[in-house]
Amino acid sequence: MTKIDTSRPESVLPTPSHTVGPFYGHALPFRGGEDIAPLGHPDTVTLHGYVTDGAGDPLPDALIELWGADPDGNLPTADGSMRRDPASGGFLGRNGVEFTGWGRIQTDANGHWYARTLRPGARGRSAPYISVCVFARGLLVHLYTRIYLPGDDAVLTADPLLSGLEDGRRDTLIAVAEAAGTYRFDIRLQGEGETVFLEFQ
Amino acid sequence: MTLTQHDIDQEIAAERAAYEKRLADGGPVEHQPRRDYAPYRSSVLRHPKQPPVTIDVSKDPELVELASPAFGERDITEIDNDLTRQHDGEPIGERITVSGRLLDRDGRPVRGQLVEIWQANSAGRYAHQREQHDAPLDPNFTGVGRTLTDDEGRYHFTTVQPGPYPWRQHLNAWRPAHIHFSLFGTAFTQRLVTQMYFPSDPLFPYDPIIQSVTDDAARQRLVATYDHGLSVPEFSMGYHWDIVLDGPNATWIEEGR
């Protein structure tokens, strides 16, 4: 029965998850999905990496969503990530000024993704991080992880999540600095170097 | 050796028996599929082997994951929720209206949030270049829709009944007709991507994707209800499908859970 009786709390049970499948490419990705940072913003960082499976092979059909705070640690409330053109129905891209904090990126044929966003500020007890949600064919329930940026070891050491992890696993959540403002973050779904994934309760 | 439907049927039965045993041994009702559900072969190399690390959201109300991205009128167009009006002509197929409410685990409506759908056309073909099924494309149907929920959490789409389609996982593998849904809640923890099915589809027992939800009641929650009140006279058949987002949100903290 799929009419939920909200007067009976015991009947309000979750709708199960399903895989995003292989054929979302004409539906979910949108122009500017990876360009989250307002144009020319000085706190822009580039994040990129590969998504790989248990055989070490890249996933050409993974979908990643990023969600993060602005550089002051405030959570964005602006809409407009996927602005539309009412004339053609197409995507206009972002307006280049507002920061929505959210982006969506499909891996390319090599299993690679990138995004440009703003360096997040700290909130609450955590070191600054960007929340990541991973979808793919074969993944029956999406996976959450986090991207922490390297630099301030004291802050990372004090983070409630990172401090509870063994060194090898902890490192899977910390991006690797490359060129100035560019960070590498690979997502390994299974096997050696498997990324730490999260559940929320 | 070609993988047959019989092979998959046996694996599905074994997974059901294993779930029943877990229940009999006092295990919890499993509302979600297991990520390592092997009858769906694509899962085999794509699920983590390590258990997820649990984050207790009640310990920190400032978690990024307790808020959700926002969407608004700029992100949709007027005809996004009518998949039959997005081209010059009418798509082929049986017109349907699909409507329901988006709720959280407390039964509260999720208001003003983005609902995205995508589907095959009435012949069972996606408008996606990598699709290999040789059923006809429909020049008047893309199969993509978006809407924002209203103040009661309601969404509404007009589309055509999608066809079932073969998918080559095993010999004679067919997916039951379905519409993909992507949903946001008030917290990023509530993110959901799933599929809505139609009542009494004869393909249900053979499909390892719907069967990955091994709990009978949970699986039923993926199946829309025919609703004559939603059928539009001289126009479309109506289906009702309420969606309940899993995962904690900020109200859990306010109530001290």
Note down, in words, how this protein is organized.
The complex is a heterodimer of chains A (201) and B (257). Chain A is mostly beta strands. Chain A is built from 2 helices and 10 strands. By secondary structure, chain B is an alpha+beta fold. Chain B is built from 3 helices and 12 strands, in the order H-E-E-E-E-E-E-E-E-E-H-E-E-E-H. In chain B, strands 2, 5, 10, 11 and 12 form a 5-stranded mixed sheet that branches. A 4-stranded antiparallel sheet of chain B has the order 4-3-8-9, with no helix packed on it. In chain B, strands 6-7 form a two-stranded antiparallel ribbon. The mean pLDDT of chain B is 95. At the A-B interface, strand 2, strand 5 and strand 10 of A face strand 1, strand 2, strand 3, strand 9 and helix 2 of B. Strand 10 (198-200) of chain A pairs parallel with strand 1 of chain B, so a sheet runs across the interface.
Notable features of this structure?
heterodimer; A: 201 residues; Protocatechuate 3,4-Dioxygenase, subunit A; 4-stranded antiparallel β-sheet; 10 strands; B: 257 residues; alpha+beta; globular
The largest inter-chain interface, given as chain pair and residues per side, is:
A-B, 83 and 94 residues
Regions with little confidence, pLDDT below 50 for 5+ residues of chain A: none
Count of spatially separate domains of chain A:
1
Rg over alpha carbons of chain A: 18 Å
**CATH H-level superfamily title of chain A:** Aromatic compound dioxygenase
- Counting DSSP H or I runs of 4 or more residues, the number of helices of chain A is 2
Q: In which range does the helix fraction of chain A lie?
A: under 10%
Q: State the oligomer.
A: heterodimer
CATH fold-type name of chain A: Protocatechuate 3,4-Dioxygenase, subunit A
Task: Give a summary of the structure in a few sentences.
The complex is a heterodimer of chains A (201) and B (257). With 201 residues, chain A is mostly beta strands. Chain A contains two helices and ten strands; from the N terminus they run ββββββααββββ.
